[in-house]
Amino acid sequence: MAHADRDTAAPAPLSRRSAVAALGVIVVGAFFTGRRAIAAPAAAPGLDDPAKKETAMKLVSSAENSSLDWKAQYRYIEDIGDGRGYTAGIIGFCSGTGDMLDLVQLYADRRPGNVLARYLPALREVNGTDSHTGLDPDYPGDWRRAAEDTAFQQAQNDERDRVYFNPAVARGKTDGLRALGQFAYYDALVMHGDGDDPTSFRGIRARALRTARPPAQGGGETAYLNAFLDARVWAMRQEEAHSDTSRVDTAQRVFLRDGNLDLNTPLDWKVYGDSYHLG
Domain spanning 75-146 has what CATH number? Predict the structure, then answer.
């Protein structure tokens, strides 16, 4: 990053009284006590830090799969009756929302002739509906077979990052949010997608902005995240399948009340009445 030119001459020594008055004041990346400069602490890692990302995967898995073992979910598939057809894999790819189609297409591009490739025409037909036409009765079993292939596992990881994780982290950083806020964005994107309707991630963020501003716009981080979580709860309650808001109320809201904006472990939370702990 380029920096504007600045005077690089050494600062004059501060008197004891001046040093005391200057405590906590950042001056060109450091604060001074007497003659000694102490560097400002490094920024905490964002959600894309490997350890933070692993935490995020486990948090979402606790809500999506009632398990912290997110890697066991590559083979998961069922119709949960939410109008989105089959829900499957580590992030709940859905046959009715297009992200499952994109995933299976990526897998076919990387591994032509794989066990799921023959379902691509059916996935195109059922996109936007809850239909199983052309998928039943063998699709769930073939999905589980494909999940034993590391190429399919990697495809799930890559589509999760491309569609949900990376956009959430990027938007969160642009808004000046730390790891907790970036996670709140990620979890919202996973559940609601990024469409144009009021209950999409974009609509939720717009609703929050009516009452609070993110740090990048001069607002307080905690106040803004409370507004975002309020908007998220409103969006969830618009749909019966998502009306249980515990993944916000007894998880993300708990971390926010604790002031854990960097999403540091240990973490304790509940989802759908089940308790979880990360040390």
Answer: 3.30.386.10
